[in-house]
């Protein structure tokens, strides 16, 4: 039972097993959320929490060797700064030791019952995956609206 006039967020709650998770390091996954009869919202995220923390070096062509052949080498310069709008693509730490990734949000108008569909997919990479413990999907209010006032 959801409260009327409330914006909700849905979060995948997970953590790597004691042996560690694998197969999530470089492959994005697709998360989606939809209210029945309404457009589905999809986006790409990463379940590897370290991906957002790793240094990212730009790969640039350099002329190397006797005959000045062009080869791709990693630049020795500073890492590229992360873009702020990418922060929501990585899991966040929770106080209980688990991680959470927002799947999306939806608005509960109240009145008629509706079905909310949530999904987590990785079908493009084809690599084996394992070691991910899933606690569940948590749905919690983000914002309440009462008589046109936001609380």
Backbone shape: globular
Radius of gyration: 21 Å
Helix tally equals 0
Mean pLDDT equals 77
The largest beta-sheet arranges its strands as 6-7-1-9-10
CA-CA gap between termini: 20 Å
User: What share of the residues lie within helices?
Assistant: under 10%
Protein name: F-box protein
Region (Disordered): 73-92
InterPro entries: PP2-like
Describe, in plain words, how this protein is organized in 3D.
The chain has strands at residues 6-16, 29-35, 41-45, 59-64, 69-74, 92-93, 99-108, 116-121, 132-146, 149-150. It has a five-stranded antiparallel beta sheet with strand order 6-7-1-9-10, with no helix packed on it. The protein has a three-stranded antiparallel beta sheet with strand order 3-2-8, with no helix packed on it. It has one domain (6-55, 82-141). By secondary structure, the protein is an all-beta fold. Mean pLDDT is 77; it is low at 70-84. Residues 73-92 are annotated as: Disordered. InterPro entries: PP2-like. This is F-box protein.
